[in-house]
Amino acid sequence: MGESISSGVLARWHVKDGDPVKRDQPLFELETDKITSEGCAEAAGIISLGVAEGAEVKIGQVVATIDVGAGAPPAAGPNPTDAATKPPSAPEPAPKSSVAAPPAAVLSPAVRRMAEETGVDPAAVAGTGKAGRVTKADMLSASEAPARAEGATPSAPAPPPAPLGARQTRKRLSQLRLRIAERLVSVQHDAALLTTFNEVDMTAVMDLRSRYQEDFVKRNGFKLGFTSFFVKAVVQALKEVPAINVQIDGDTLVQNHFYDIGVAVSTENGLMVPVIRDCDSLGLAGVERAIVDAAGKAREGKITLADLEGGVFTITNGGTFGSLLSTPIINPPQSAILGMHAINDRPVALGGQVVIRSMMYVALTYDHRVVDGREAVTFLVKVKQEIEDPSRLLLGI
Description:
CATH topology of the largest domain: Chloramphenicol Acetyltransferase
CATH architecture of the largest domain: 2-Layer Sandwich
Shape: globular
Distance between the termini: 41 Å
Order of helices and strands: EEEEEEEHHHHEHHEEEEEEHHEEEEHH
Largest sheet: 7 strands, mixed
Number of domains: 3
Number of strands: 18
CATH class of the largest domain: Alpha Beta
Radius of gyration: 26 Å
Strand content: 15-25%
Helix content: 25-40%
């Protein structure tokens, strides 16, 4: 789990004491202050649980044992005596569907929960995981497809209903949520946060995506989003305003000369910021692929500490949920964060005329201890220029 993690909470068992289990079958979810991960069976056999749900456990502690000698009970074969005495039975009816559902053992708990919540049949979903396994990201895409077709905004799953007559329900905060709370509060206390705003005309990017989206999907197998444009714009702005690409280490100012950009991802367990490495050497397709892969790992609970560490700058997109404007909080020890927001058609003055354009408000929160207002505003203006004229991204200017 990494040297910085010494314990966690065994949040949920996916099996019961005495259940037969298969090798690599997901057994439990472990919540730590950084990530939530699944523990899988190392062998097939009968499992004996040694720790209750909700218990805090040490990394390396034994939480269950598997009796590999017991194994799963053998399937009952035909009895010759019964066959001789039992009258012939009517033939089994043909299955209603020619597509067989995947065995429950190959479906992760997250996929099974999504199937229950959305009613989407995993057998009808094309899997993008290892060996064609259906992932939670696949289920999310399948469940959101009707909403996208109708132009609706995908919404988060509804929370479970409260018990009848209950005025309150209480639930223990996860270790990840507690850690997020601690970090956000510490940033407010330790850093001098200031936010500067601007608005960006997204019309050129939207036109470009509209013209080439179909060809892009055919070649790459995924859609071209907006965040990859902002990642490349941020890289170019960091090169021109290196004062943003810094961090404080005690009484030392550290200047970074690389461009590993964190992209905030909302998951069921809380906000995670996987880092996209070497964004300066990736094209738009490479950045988009890395974002899709990282978001899928985060939502599947397969993110690792290595995926979350080492970023120099973070981008968060509240516009996904309809946010018009916000003041994001920096991700320490970084010195700045860019907030994207919803795209709305608005009347603007252009060339002496009032025209309708697709506009987005952007916000840059920075640590005023090390970043001055001039550098922050210059940086955000540079991002604006790159997005409003995306050909600059291709030319690197």
